[in-house]
Every structure is written in structure tokens, then in C-alpha cells.
Fold this protein.
Amino acid sequence: MSSKRDYYAVLGVSKSASASEIKSQYRKLALKFHPDRNKSAEASEHFKEISEAYAVLSDSEKRKTYDQYGHAGVDGKYSTDDIFRGASGNFNDVFNDLFGGSGGGFDSIFDTLFGNRRGFNQYRQQKGADLLYETSITLEDVLHGKKIDIDLKKDIECDVCGASGCAPSSNKKSCSSCNGQGQLRKTRKMGFASFVTVEPCNSCKGQGTIIEKPCNACNGKGTKKGSKHLSFDLPPGIDNGDYTIQGEGEYVPDGISGDLIVRVRVQSHQKFKRDGRDIFFDQEISMIDAALGREMVVPTLDGEEKIKIENGSQPNTILKLKGKGVPFHNSSRGDQYVRLVINIPKKLNNHQKNLLKEFEESFN
């Protein structure tokens, strides 16, 4: 059970309060408990509590979820970042009114609640590019699986600077243009209103820090061109398609590495056709074998298998070899289906024709 107080009780409004009533009440409480105005020890915690309550109740979707499920519904569906960023416009409205665009706004309140952000990209990490590796496999590989070994050319962490981008015995410096924030706020007054815009700092490219002495090995990028040996298994039953190996794409310092996309193509087989986990094979037989029946061997992915052709078998008769297919999506193996293709001779000599006529007359 959550130990948080009811959001409506925190703001001192009823559950039927309108959006404007909730906003008005939060304005009063924010003015009272904002840490820049109230230096008491309890003010900061009160300010966090009322701001979280307002972030949820000022958002119609989050308020609906809270009314239905309480704190468990909100906490289970949204992260703290989701809760506050979803209501950023509502906070900006309130704090522009209260502080005239200076000392307030969403970015200010987020800093107050959760500490200095240390760079514009902290909450939205850059992700490296994905890489593509293409391979073709045989139907036998589908049956047994296949181990893949590759040397992947990619951006890797610089082993000289440890991805910092700084020359040995040097460190990054806080950006003086933005005081390490990674962003710059610009305020414009238009009549009685003030408008605040926030944009990445050009000096540090939104990082909040500047490299004074770049690493010679990577020119300050923190990465260099290299290769990485990868060994992975394609499981039995794999099909045509793209498969992802997370984190094995391009490396990004202080970010999220991209993924490796493994594109698999199953080669056509000279003998067999595949449909899911089943295998199909055409076996030619003579019309004599179809009429009289016989035993014979047919190929499978495991080797040869004996089948029995019943006398009087008709064209396109299907025989099933249970468990001689391939696995599919980690399931058991399918079956192999053998279709009998009756070979009718195109040319007959006179003796053969007479024998067939005698055979035909024997039915009369």
C-alpha cells in the first residue's frame, strides 16, 4: 500500500474540483512553499508533494487513471519523468504568472525537485546507430541451428581516454556559457506577459561540459573505428527475417549503444520445400510401382528414410513421415510430406503398346 497522501487532500481541493480550481489552489500553495521564498526545512518537501499532486491532477488522462486506481495506477503506469514532463505546459503557465518568467518554469521546477540536471541530454540519452549484418543459411541449418562468428567493424570505446574524450591527466570543464546546465533560457517580455524559451547551449552542444585538451587518439570524440569479435547462435527453427542483438551497434559515450540487426535469409533447397515447420518432397515413381506397390527409400534432412507405396496408389498421393520436418519458434519438429508423382512414359514401342492393350482388354 502506498504511503503517499491523497493528491486531492495534498492540494486541499475536492475530487469534483475543476481544472481551474486545481490550478488556482496550486498557485497559492506554490507561492507559499517555493524554496526560493520559503527557507524553512519543511518547505522543500511540501513543494515536492504539492507539485507531484498538481502534475497528476492537471493532466486529464493521469487524473482519470488516479481517480480509478489511486497511486498504484499512476505509479505503475508512469515514471517520475513521465508525470512531470507530461504537465510541463501547466507548470510554465503557473510559474510565468507567479515569477514573470524568471526563477520559474518547468525546467526550474524540475531542477528544484530532482537536483541540477547537468546537461541538456541527461534525460534523453543519445543512441548510437544500428548496424546490419546479413547472412544466408541452409535448410539443414534451420534444423540444427548455426553458430555465427564475425568481426564487426564499428565505433568502439577509445582505449586511450576511456571514452571521456579528454587527453590523459585532463578532465572536462564545466561550460561557462551555460554554467554546466547544457541549456540557455531566454526571456522575452511582450506587454504584461513574459515568455521563456529553453534551447541547447551552442558552446557545449547541450552537454554542460567542455573538453579543453582533446584526446589525440580519438580527437575528443571518445570513440574510434575498430572491430569487435562477436559469436552468437542462430537457434533451430529460425526463419527469414530480421533479428536484433541489443547493444552491439555503434558505441556512444554517455549514451546508449545501437543494436545489431541480423538479417537472415534461408536458401532454397534443391530437394525440399519448407512451409513453417513442415517439409515437402516430390517422389517420382513409375506407373507400374503405383499399380503394384513397392518399398523404397526417400531423402530427408536426417538422411534416407524407408516408405511403403501401396498398390493402386493414385497420382498426388501424400505420405507422411512424422517428425521429419524442422522445429519452428522453439516448438517440436514438424513432419515431412512425400507427394507421389507418377511418371507416365511419353514413348512406347509396339510391344509395350500391345501389352497395355492386352492389360486393358483383360478388364472386359
About this structure: The radius of gyration is 36 Å. Residues 19-33 form the longest helix (15 residues). Residues 266 and 342 are 30 Å apart (CA to CA).
